[in-house]
Amino acid sequence: MRTGRLSLDRIHTLKESVVKTIQRGESPRRVYITLAVALSVMIGAMLGVSYMGKRLIARQAPLVDAAMEIKLELTTAHLWLEEALSGDQQATIEDVRRHLDEAAWYARAMLEGGRNAEGTFIPLDRPELRHSLRDVRSKIVQFHEITEQRWNARDSSGVDTHIDRRYDTLFEELMLLADAVETETQRAMAAETRMFFWLQGALVLGCMGLALFIGVVLHRYVAQRDRAERLQRELLAELEAKNAELEQFSYTVSHDLRSPLVTVKGFVGLLEKDLAAEKTHRAADHIKRIAGAADKMAGLLDDVLELSRIGRVVNPPEDVSLKEMTQDVTSLLAGHISDSGVRIDVSPDLPTLYGDATRLREVLQNLIENAIRYMGEQPDPRIAVNARIEDDHVVCSVADNGIGIEPEYQGKIFGLFDTLDSENEGTGVGLALVKRIVETHGGRIWVESEGSLKGTTFYFTLPKKETTRDQTGGERCVASH
Predict the structure, then answer these.
(1) What is residue 116's predicted lDDT score, i.e. its pLDDT?
(2) Rounded distance, CA 140 to CA 101, Å?
(3) How far apart are CA 481 and CA 477, in angstroms?
(4) 86 and 111 both lie in a single domain
(5) Residue 381 phi/psi, 5° resolution?
(6) I want to staple 375 with a disulfide (CB 3.0 to 4.6 A). Which of 105, 146, 365, 381 is the partner?
């Protein structure tokens, strides 16, 4: 049996469906995030490849040009020297020296980096090429020296002299080294160019894959969006039914929690005035009342917190012997029972319940405590615990012969903070908590009383184990929500 209240089991089921839908990527937010990540990866890859291309051009092209410039400057220096030695007035040793210095600068720029009007040169990072360039620089220095020697000995030099032969040999070795450096530099650039083209190809394939992925995500989103929205609409529609109760709950909590605060504030004001007037004889009473109000607020907050946990704190459903549970509760309340002189009569054939054992124990404990609390001046106080099976549910009852409840109050006692006696130590949350627990189990609770001093009987129902399974589609009980 279920009441007209909002089914927490239904809300939980819908919530799980919505959460699973979102987790599978069906929510707009997840789709947008996925597309944003995919596009970011695509753009990042394009920028990365573009950066690599620029780096390749900025790094390798000047080095290839520098290797060619070394050969060109050395060849030019050699030709100008030959012209100068032959008596050509347009060729001077200064021109030869300038071209040799240019060759040496390009070799140094390839090793250490440099900048001129033609661009910026980044140092080579290949060990074998750096070794060859060091040889080139060393040979350029030697060639510069032999060039000066040949110029200084120009009057006695000839094709068969030792200086000429040494000059020719060194020039040939230097050109071979320069050729090797140029060739290796070109090969390095070609290798990096090939790698760049491979990366471009991989980028194109990656972009195609990402485009396909985006298409699949969009298709899946469009195909399943209606289902997600429908589930969300159902959940919101059922949650709207809860708004009235939540509004009443908020109003009641704020009203009842404000009462002890007003008490605290009032007695703090009185205490301040008495202390200012050095009247301390009432201070202890004021402090006692303040502490009492604080304790009452703490009790209210604890009860409200416990009430909020119903339906959220999950305990697995299990078979619960009502007889054993009643014995546990009476043992727990033994002191209270003894002080009040109440006799507890327990039916010998109590059935087995199915649900959250901890919560069901709270129901029974609250009902028995409530019966003891409102026993009044009954000379022979008695409480009876009974249960019977009807159709697909179990009807449990806790009856007392206490002060009873007038008919006009029987519909209000399950409200939050509603108490029949304002002087009673209770917070008025116990029966509201009991009602919430019973309803989350799929049952209902009500009270019967013929009026003042006629006693009271609280009845609550719980679905049978088999019924609970049928309603939930498995071993899961409503209470587990």
Answers:
(1) 75
(2) 9
(3) 8
(4) yes
(5) -70, 135
(6) 381
**113: alpha, beta or left, given left = phi > 0 and alpha = psi -120 to 50?**
left
pLDDT at position 459: 95
Q: Residue 310: is its pLDDT beyond 70? A: no
Contact between 167 and 101 under an 8 Å Cβ cutoff? The reply is no
Q: Kindly state whether residue 14 falls inside one of the protein's structural domains.
A: no
Q: How many Cβ atoms from other residues are within 10 Å of residue 125's Cβ?
A: 9
Query: Which amino acid, one-letter code, is at 74?
Result: L
Whether residue 421 sits in one domain with residue 342? yes
CB 460 within 8 A of CB 440: no
430-440 and 283-309 helices, crossing angle to 10° = 10
First to last CA, the chain: 17
Is residue 247 located within the same domain as residue 115?
no
Which residue range(s) make up the domain with 110? Answer: 22-219
Question: What pLDDT, in 10s, does the model give residues 403-436?
Answer: 998 888 887 888 765 555 555 555 567 788 888 8
Q: Is the pTM of this model over 0.70?
A: no
**Residue in the structure block whose two tokens are 């054993």:** 324
Whether 271 and 286 have beta carbons less than 8 Å apart is answered as yes
Structural domains in the chain (count)? 3
Average pLDDT, the chain: 77
| pLDDT (mean) for 89-106 | 85
Q: What is the distance between the alpha carbons of residues 160 and 72, in angstroms, rounded to a whole number?
A: 27
460 phi/psi in degrees, rounded to 5: -145, 145
Tokens 């605290």 -> residue: 264
**More confident site: 401 or 66:** 401
Question: How deeply is 456 buried, as exposed, middle or buried, from its count of CB atoms within 10 A (0-12, 13-18, 19+)?
Answer: buried
